[in-house]
Amino acid sequence: MIKFKQYSEIISQISKKLKVSKDVATAALVKAQQKGIDPLKWQKYMTMLQTFVKIAAEHDPSLREKENRPGTSWQTSNSSWGGKNHDGDVEYYTGPNAKQMSKAWAKGQTKKRGNAHIAGSSDSGDKKPEDKEKKKGKRKGYFAVILDPKSHKEVASLASFPSIQSHHVTVAFSPDEKIAEKLDDMVGKDIRINTSDYMKNDEIDALIVSGMSGIKREDPGQAHITVSHKEGVKPQKSNDMVKSPDTRTPKKLLLHGKFQFVAFKR
Fold first, then answer.
1. What is the pLDDT along the chain (266 residues), one digit of tens a residue?
2. Is pTM beyond 0.85 here?
3. 221: helix, coil or strand?
4. Is the Cα torsion angle 262, 259, 183, 207 positive or negative in sign?
C-alpha cells in the first residue's frame, strides 16, 4: 500500500513535471487511479496524465479559477461561465448571456453580480418563459462536493487499501432536470463538510458525512466519502458497505470543498 508521504511526493513531482499547480496534479492523479493506474508508476503514463490534467481543469471550475489569470473568463463543463476580476474574485453565470456577464465581471464592468453594464443583461441571464421549458430526462453527470487538496490529503491519509479515492461527496448522480436545475445555482460555492465515522470491510473504506453547509444529499442512502478500495473493486461499492460495515470507528473531521457538476465522458 502506498504511504501518504509517497503520495504527496508524487503529486509534487507531477506538478513540477507538467508545470501545473499541485491542485491540478492531485485531481489528475485521482483520475488516473480511477482508471486503475498505480501512482508509483505514474511516469509510464505521462500522455494520459496530461490528458487528465486538461480534463480535471475542464470539469472542476475551482481548478480553473487558480489556473486562470485575473481578467479572464472560461466555460465550465456544465455550460455555465466563470470570470475572475482583477481583484482575484470569481463569479459564475448561467443563461443566454452568461458568457457576456462573465467577461464583464472579469473586466471590472460590474461591482456586483448581476449589474454588468451590458444592455439587456441581468443576473438571471434574461431568461425568457420558454427557457424554463427544458427537455425531460437525466442530466449526464453528477453533482458533488469536490474536496480541496488539503482535505483530500487528510482523507487519503486514512486509506486502508492501495487504490485511493478521497475525492468527493456525491450529492446527486445522473439527476432529473428538476433536481439539476435546483442544484445548478449552487455550482461554484464553497462547502464545509462534517464527518462522524470511519467505516470499512475487507475491500473498501469510507468516511460518513454527517452534514454539509447549505446542501444535502439528493440521492437515496448515506452521504459519504469513498476513501480507498482494493484493486479491481468499484468505488460505488461503498454505497452498500456503509449500510453494513465490518468495522465502524468515530472520526470527526471538518473538511472543505467546492460544489461542482462533473459531466460523464462521451
1. 566 777 888 888 888 887 777 777 787 888 788 778 888 888 888 888 888 777 665 555 555 555 566 777 767 645 567 777 777 777 777 766 777 777 887 787 665 544 443 433 444 444 444 344 344 578 888 999 999 999 999 999 999 999 999 999 999 999 998 898 889 888 889 999 999 999 999 999 999 999 999 899 999 999 999 999 999 999 999 999 999 999 999 999 999 999 998 888 76
2. no
3. coil
4. positive
C-alpha cell at 133: 421549458
C-alpha cell at 7: 503520495
Instruction: Quickly count: other Cβ atoms within 10 Å of residue 32's Cβ.
Output: 20
**Could you give the CA distance from residue 90 to residue 205 in angstroms, rounded to a whole number?**
35
Range 37-72 burial, b when 16+ CB lie within 10 A, else e: bebeebeeeeeebeebbebbbbbbbbbbbeebeeeb
Beta bridge partners of 72: 84
Beta strands in the chain (DSSP E): 72-75, 81-84, 90-93, 141-147, 163-164, 168-173, 190-200, 204-212, 224-229, 247-250, 254-263
Query: Dihedral (C-alpha) 222, 229, 59, 133: value to the nearest 10 degrees?
Result: -40
Distance CA 253, CA 65 (A): 26
